[in-house]
Structure of tRNA uridine 5-carboxymethylaminomethyl modification enzyme MnmG:
Amino acid sequence: MEFVAGEYDVAVVGAGHAGCEAALACARLGVRTVVFAINLDSIANMPCNPNIGGTAKGHLVREIDALGGEMGKNTDKTFIQSKILNSAKGPAVFSLRAQVDRRSYQIEMKNTLENQENLDIKQAEIIEILYEEVEGKKVVTGVKTHTGAVYKCKIAILTTGTYLKGKIIIGDVSYSGGPDGLFPANKLSDSLKELGIELLRFKTGTPARVNKRSVDFSKMEEQPGDERIIPFSFETEEINKEQVSCYLTYTNSETHRIIKENLHRSALFGGLIEGIGPRYCPSIEDKIVRFKDKESHQVFVEPMGLNTQEMYLQGMSTSLPEDVQIQMMRSVPGLENVSVMRSAYAIEYDCINPTQLSLSLELRNVEGLFTAGQINGTSGYEEAAAQGIIAGINASRKIRGQEPLILDRSHAYIGVLIDDIVTKGTNEPYRMMTSRAEYRLLLRQDNADLRLTPIGYKVGLVSEERYRKFEEKRRLIEEEINRVNKTNIAPTEKVNDFLKKYNSTPIKSGVKLADLLRRPELDYESLGEIDENRPELSFAVREQVSISVKYEGYIKRQMQQVEQFKKLEEKKLDKDINYDDIKGLRLEARQKLNKIKPESVGQASRISGVSPADISVLLVYLEQRRRQKA
């Protein structure tokens, strides 16, 4: 029997990383919000890696924080190890990664949701999206739970993760289930099909968890955290805490032999898995098949938290049977006597084809239905949270009758992520990588606040106090860059002794401090030895000054490329254009353009199957329309 249990502006379905950010953004922007989870103990769960960040993913977390999101702050509260990856490379690819205490992360995030004004939390499975037909278009009116309760809402945001018709697979055993032994959501997929939404079937996997007491760390390489801890959140003051080590070991010829001899028993190669898995995070058996010449593969042994003996075997994702998993693990140095606490498994789940979305993350054919996270065909906690905050912002803006927030590719990794999935689609779980961003020297993790905090403030998620501090930081950076560019360094004995110490060519006449900073062998910190009038500045300010001056030429060149990019982005395309009516467009281009309905010529140019010649035809068409209107 149905009964109306409540009325809200926004209903968020799922409380993983996307759902948490979406619900918090909506509630903080003043709209009455409810968030549903099948089990409240699964809020912000980490069914796979117990870490946040990593290559390109760290950029996303800092962007979420710059906009006013929660993931970075929660990570700073609960991490147990922190590292900057790619520190030997350029600043464009530096990526912060933190090992977190999994349970602490969940508890902290759940507590944040519980204490948030305008936000209610409910334990229930949503089985149906309710809607009505208005002028031939489906419009969301509410959601229904498995017990028959109806919650009326103006907007629903689906953040269902890997729960939709979830199927767990271990060897030749498969059963209906969600991640981590939780229940799946088996009925909502049918409701989405009824709404005319195209579904895909994807797969991901998670490695085994083992008991720390059964691991011999003396046979492994210790991987400690960094001495200098850099927070994820721009609001977090300096952190000093004792860190926990991870450990590195390797597979070997014996491991590979065991896997090869049992490939026929792997669900992946035995035909039991229908879903498409992530290319950039393959299972161990997939690695053995694809990289035949590799003699070994890395296995990171990572703690799940401070109050548990569970450890996670990063790099050993598999769908092999349990007996083979144990043989395989025990062939690895340090794991000879390992005790498995949770077996590795693959999970298949339903997701949508993301080309059905607009860049705001709203379904084009269902008014008031937004989606974020793995339901959009992406992988990873960070990708999910990034979409979650944008879906939350845009849901609240829609309720207020405001234009959606669209971050473009030159502005944020979040913009690259959303543009990629909406414009190009994906035939496998999409993972963010630095190589996907054309303007990655501009989109660094260190300057995410300079790029996005003004937007977060304008939207309403960044407080007045935070924005004042941000403005002060920006002022200090500009002043110091000006000082470095104007300061003249004389060719004294002290200066040339300093330059010789760093194998840098001595100077014969005065040079600007900025010119010395641009030398590859020198950096801002070391130049403090000869820079007598240097002010006391925070590490974050010094870092910005150093990068801005050192890479000035490259940054200017990339800014010019962005200007060219924006010219096409600014040429907007009406949603009512029928591309079949435009003469000169090739058949494939017409089909793709009518399906995706790009919002600009720039977006149209990135659609697979739309050629430069088609873009030229579009530009001519737009010019003709402009003249007709004039």
